[in-house]
Amino acid sequence: MADENKVVAELRESFGKGAARKLRALGKIPAVIYGHGGEPQHVSLPGHQVALIIRKSNAVLALDIDGTTQLTLVKDVQKDPVRQVIEHLDLIVVRQGEKVEVEVPIRVEGESYPGTIASLETTTLLVSVEATHIPEGFELSVEGLEEGQHVFAKDVPLPAGATLISDPELLVVGIMVPAATLAEGEEGEGSESTEAAAE
User: What pLDDT, in 10s, does the model give residues 145-180?
Assistant: First the structure.
């Protein structure tokens, strides 16, 4: 657990839209912590610090609540649709070594065969992984792949300890020739045959 994920949380006594608005005006984010059978806890978090942490998907926060550390996973982020300011967070309690199911983004690397493009059909995979070792993304190389080749969920390399939950036959990447390139090729063939006929 990185030190930058350690956040001091303050318990909230007042709720509702008015109270939340006041918190945001002070640069804080209202949040609710759920999980493991306990009553939901209402807390406020330092806005700027938390906004930086949750830019990464599936961020885990080590909350200091009255001197007690509580590991939580960010499950839902509510933002103002216009200003993109974080308005509220839903957090779930996790424990060291506990596995959670999360959507992890896929990052395509490399260049497919010249003249082709790699079409990303699925942007995330659902996996089961330790809450404190959630990967930021899965690296998928398409280097040298040719037209018509496909990469499925089962082909994406997962780190040790991660188990695929998504359908193994889910199409992740398809290699194809862009439609514009095909059209140009057909036009070229058409003009050549026209010239041959004219001769």
Answer: 999 999 999 999 999 999 999 999 999 999 999 877
**C-alpha dihedral, 92 to 75 to 90 to 33, nearest 10°:** 10
| Helix, strand, or coil (residue 5) | helix
Dihedral angle sign, alpha carbons of residues 110, 113, 114, 120: negative
What's this model's pTM, rounded to 2 decimal places? 0.76
- Containing H/E element for 108? strand 99-109
Question: What average pLDDT does this structure show over 53-75?
Answer: 92
Q: Where are the alpha helices (DSSP H) in 82-178?
A: none
- CA of 156: how far to CAs of 103, 166, 173, in Å? 14, 11, 10
Give mean pLDDT, residues 67-85. 90
Query: Residue 46's closest CA among 10, 70, 16, 79?
Result: 10
Facing residues of 72 across strands? 61, 93
